Amino acid sequence: MSSPAAAVAAPAALPSAVPAGEAPLSPRGALLDSLKPLLLDVAVPLVSYYALKSAGLSTFAALAWSSAVPAVRTVWGVVRERRLNALAALMVTVNVVSLLLGLVSGDARLMLLKDSGVSSTIGLVVLLSVVRGRPMMTEVIRPWITRGEAAKSAAWERLSAGSAAFRRAERRFSLVWGAALLAECAVRAAGAYALPVETMVWAGTVVLVVAMLLAFVVSGRLGVGPMERMIAEETAAGSGR
Hints:
Elements: H1 5-8, H2 27-34, H3 36-54, H4 59-81, H5 86-105, H6 108-131, H7 138-146, H8 150-162, H9 164-194, H10 197-239
């Protein structure tokens, strides 16, 4: 009923600079802070679905109305922040189009499949961005690591321009997320037609959570960790120049 792409499609929610007098959050602290919208995208639609079903709506109607919540929240977030990067734009477009297709078809299982369509489309685009040498997820990870600090931002620019190891870590981060989105899509698509709709409503959330956790752990080890170390070393070296 929601996609893990929602967690990474709204980096505009992260501040671009640290307010004066405030201690900057650690990258992982910023990451946890940015996951708050995802909790809404998971919990609200799930609770809404069962509440609407209890109120007498059909399975399809309950799925349709509850699925609209993440799409509306994403669009509202973009309007409120007045910022739209490529990932957020893709997320909004695919989510709205797939929701409309589900409404036109009137098929409850297709409505469940909607989220898989969102994940697979974004996963493929992320992987293609790596092939093109411009990893899309860099837009997301950079604010988590630099937190708007001038020294870290400068270190990022230097490493991105001159360090092959840093660029490999960038690519690995995007590769992990692209693969995770495609795997989540495959599992949920199979479940949408192999399991009863009522079962898949909550099982889809389980798949979502597992995919998110695995992606964060693996991308942290292969991408974020190495990038943090290189940024710290480059920042220290830059301050001594």
